[in-house]
Each structure stands twice: as C-alpha cells, then as structure tokens.
Amino acid sequence: MSSLFTVAEKELAHIGLAALDAKEADIVVGGLGPGYTAEAALEHEAVQSLTVIDNIAEVIEWHRQKLVPLGEVLTEYPRCCLVEGDFFAMAANDGFDPDRPHRLFHAVLLDVDHSPALTLHPGHDVFYTRDGLTRLKDRLHPGGVFAMWSNDPPEAEFSAALADVFPETEAHIVRFPNHLQNRNATATIYVAVNAAR
Fold this sequence. Notes:
The chain is an alpha/beta fold. The protein is built from 7 helices and 7 strands. The protein has a single domain (7-187), classed as Vaccinia Virus protein VP39 (Rossmann fold), CATH 3.40.50. A 7-stranded mixed beta sheet has the order 3-2-1-4-5-7-6. Helix 6 (130-137) packs across helix 7 (156-165). It is globular, with a radius of gyration of 16 Å.
C-alpha cells in the first residue's frame, strides 16, 4: 500500500463506474488500503451504498481511528461500510454482505493482488479463472460491472477468461508520472459488464 501513486487506484473507480448504467447503485470495493478507490467511488452520485472489504483488521482500524488521511472521510460517510473479510472467499461462497447472503451488487471494484498472474496468496489464483469469474458474476445485478486494477500490462490468458464469462470486456491502460524513477508508469484497469436482462 502506498500513497505516493494514487492515479490508477482512483481511475479504477472512475473507469469502472463509468461503465455502469444505474441511477442508484450498491458497490463493493475489494481492498481498502489507504482508501483512494473507495473515496473516488463516493464521488459518483449514483452510489447509494459502498461496502469496502479488507482482510486485515489493522487496516480497517487505522481508518476507524483516523490514523490515515482518508479515515475520517470513509468512516463518517453514511453510505460507506468497512467489512473485515476475505474478498476471495466471500466471492466464492455467500457473497459480500455478511447480513444478507447472496445479495447482488451493481459493481465490484477489486484492488488486492498485483496482477492476475502475481497474486499475494496462492488461494487467490482460482478467482482469476473462468470458474472464479463466473462466481463473481453471480454476485452482480444484470448490467452490473466488475472492474479490477492490475500493475501489469493486459494479460492475454486473463483477458480470455474474462471474455468467456462477460459479454462486454475492455482493458484500459492508465499512465501516470513516476517521479521516483523519472519516467511514466502504467497500470491496467480491466472492465467487464454483466449481460442485461
């Protein structure tokens, strides 16, 4: 987690939610970190509820104790709820709302792993397969959006799995200056739209 570069984290929310055609939307963000994706999502008027899931209790507590810059914004915003949990296990099982199993959401924005090929835990690998993505799609309303940040360029194998599951997919390259290396850096935002009824 770093607050040095936040362009791609914010663009995850902006690009992902731009693909959403809903006037009122319930959103999930997988991965809290410093909170830049969640904050950017709250800028969208359509967002009526935001559930942010993080597996590290201490990260959530930093926000609740306002030890990080966006802690006050996220913890005091009535539309935002911070949930301790394993995003990947929740996606594969009863869903993202502990109080309402199998609840559907209008968008899921994911920023946890470095990329589909470079995960933080081997247990995440199945999520990036056709089966894992199908389970994620089952958590979305018709017309719902799945968007995901990756530190790597678009990956053919993951893009193919995404296209097997979702009727509309696209990979966006986000460029931003890296002043530490005196060059431009890039990230990828994958966007997939669930079929409407």
